[in-house]
Amino acid sequence: MAGYILKRLVFIFITLLLASIIIFSITQFLPGDVARIILGQFATDTAIENLREELGLNRALHIQYIDWAGNFVRGDWGNSLTSKLPVRPMVMARLSNSAMLAGMALLIYVPLGIILGVIAALKRDKWPDHLISGISMAFVGLPEFVSGLLLIAFLAIGLQWFPANSSINPDSTFLEALPFLILPAITVSLTGLGYIARMTRSGTIDVLRNDYVRAADLKGLPAWQVLIRHTLRNSLLPTVTVVAMGIGWLMGGLIVTETVYGYPGLGRLLVYAIQRQDLPLIQAGSMIIVAIYSFSNLAADILYGMLNPRIRVGK
Amino acid sequence: MLKKFVVLLVVLLIASLVLVSCGPTATEEEPEEALSEKHGGVLGFAYYAPTNMDPAFASTVADEHVARQYSDHLVFIDEENEPDVNRSVAEDWESNEDGTVWSFALRQGIMFHDGKEMTSRDVKFTYDRLRDPDVGTATVGLYSNIVDITTPDDYSIVFELADPNPDFLKDLADYHALIMDADNTDFATNFNGTGPFIVEQYIPEDRITFTRNPNYWMTDDDGYALPYLDGMEFIFLSDSSAQVEALRGGQVHYLIYLSAEFVPMLEEDPNIEIYQKPSNTAWVIRMRSDREPASDVRVRQAIKAATDRSAILEGAIGGLGIAGRDTPFGPSYGDIYLDVPEPVRDVDEAKRLLEEAGYPDGLDIIIHTQEQSPLPAIATIWKEQLAEAGINVEIQLVPSEVYYGAENMWLEVDFGITDWGSRPYPQPYLDLAYVTGAQWNETHWSDPELDTLAAAAAMELDRDERIKLYHEIQEIFIERGPIIVPFFINNLWGASADLKGLNPTSGLGTALDLRTVYFE
Known about the structure:
The structure holds two protein chains of two kinds.
Chain A: H1 2-28, H2 34-39, H3 45-55, H4 61-73, H5 87-122, H6 127-141, H7 144-158, H8 174-208, H9 211-218, H10 223-235, H11 237-252, H12 255-261, H13 266-276, H14 279-307
Chain B: H1 2-20, E1 42-47, H2 61-70, E2 76-77, E3 83-84, E4 90-95, E5 101-106, H3 120-130, E6 146-153, E7 156-161, H4 168-172, E8 197-203, E9 207-212, E10 231-236, H5 240-248, E11 254-255, H6 263-267, E12 272-287, H7 297-306, H8 309-317, E13 321-323, H9 347-356, E14 363-370, H10 375-387, E15 391-398, H11 400-403, H12 409-412, E16 415-420, H13 427-434, H14 448-459, H15 463-480, E17 483-484, E18 487-496, E19 499-500, H16 508-511, E20 518-519
Parallel strand pairs in B: 1-10, 14-15, 14-16
Antiparallel strand pairs in B: 2-3, 4-5, 5-7, 6-7, 8-9, 9-10, 11-18, 12-16, 12-17, 12-18, 13-18, 19-20
């Protein structure tokens, strides 16, 4: 097991390294010039040239990269090119915001998705199944800027239950941020719910077919014990993977939801960095997101192994 | 199994709690001065994020918004586009007979936020920096007419000009020209100004917060200290729907540059007030006049004759503006504006002119413009209008970064639609875009008569004479100019109904002057 984890960690390191090189290369092909973006369309060429020199953009590309990578590994993530402020606190603040939103969304859609999935599986091909599958798939297909604006119109402007805008204060605690998290979390959950429900449904249906479930049933165990003790432990395995993939998505991919609600998460910061071609910020932000993806997948695989001894890897 | 999920979720939650739980706590100090009953409240404001925090390099509205709160102008331009000495850092000014030497007396006792007194040295530093080619701000050209700036004493400053300039006070009020501390070494991170609000915290791509400057120099008519507001929170929202929802939901109280499409909805909301004022902001359909086909004046006249300006105004922005007359000057300039009737659409005349110019079977043209609202709508309506005159328009939509990008597409293409923002006075439009060889002469138009008139208007100190010159210039544009101005859009501002003291006009300066704004 330890050997397996070590191997995976090495792979994650290689993934991060390759990702940083690829992202660095891609930013070189973005149209426009960061110095021009900072100084504006109407600044003189002298000013642009001075700034390029000051920012070190006139150095050879590989020097720029090695310089950045060396500092990054040592914990110096550099300063944002556009705001001149250190990148690390900026990214970390957004990371904690994203974690709050991700946690809230998972709390809503994972239990709900599992419950709906199990109901759909138990009532397979009857009307509750059709209803759950139909509605959850419709929500998956509904774009977040539509569901988000609808939720704002009904729950925030109409009923005034929640704030319409979720631009939380940077130093908010989780409790202070809570009312602002609910609407964006619901918006995200509408998308996530469908995946979880479908995964749980098909996993449960597969397991229910097994002989040991029938045996437990025939033995006279109450239905809920059969479900919880004997079915879910196996049927939720595929769901674990979907949840783990979801964490990466929740931490870095909620650009539309964050924009609609003005929520200061990691995804919006990254879009902003790309628009401004703020290289240190782009690099740091994407490294974090790649790392979260990699580690949540690793965690899922380890959890998978713990839940199901049959697929445990290594000795 | 379920337990493990719960554990995972709780761990995530705890992690986020730990990450956010450390933050500073603020201590409030009670000011001792007597305050107006209008005093108090924190104003919420939402707009796109600023790009450059150094006012000398400000290039977006958000940049200007921030700078105007923490700093001051030597000369403040008021709602009528005239200098207002009561709202300016200079308390008096005069020029010599021929308008080449301008002397200013500064108010005494104006303090920077760090406690340093502002003197003529800081003012001189500000304008020297803005005209220094080595610094290279966008104002180098604007201030190239300044020969020397001298400071006879701490509260006097004298500008010497090479040529007379009737617009000099307005030039000094340029949006980059906010008075900066001469001892500051980094204007992008150190926001030490004299302005009504003090920058409390700036978090890039998130927000900037301000507190009231308790030592601000300006008082209201009753002698109470300004500003009234205790502070401001400016949230950066990159989506206009999100900005509008935040206003409707009461999280912010003021929005500038509302998009016309939100106005009908907001007008129904009893908690929201819409302010609407004519501006000189236009999306200009411009025809390149140094090569075929628009080098032939008859082609330009034919295209103009085929255009129905009011229909574009109605269709593209729901009529929230004023139809143009194909000159760069709109009615917001008062008597400078040549008030003639809107040109009447005449498709037969357009066909006749085209035939005369050698296009009896019609004409194919390509128009380039940006893909942001309302440009696609303008281009589409215009295309339909021109089709009836036998002109086939192909529309090419590109992102703004491409249209104004490194290749300068907007200066090159044969036909384009370019957005031109409001300026407090009309002369820069001519000098920047329409005289021969101008830096942004996107139409490549060259008309000797216009050049002569524009040069004369630039230096004419007599107001009536100057208006006459501007009228002649507008006649030339209407008769043979290279542009079609479908409309000037109204500037639209939205605010909570309980926010009072706002007096936004066409200029951004008045819309962002929040010194006398208060909550009812």
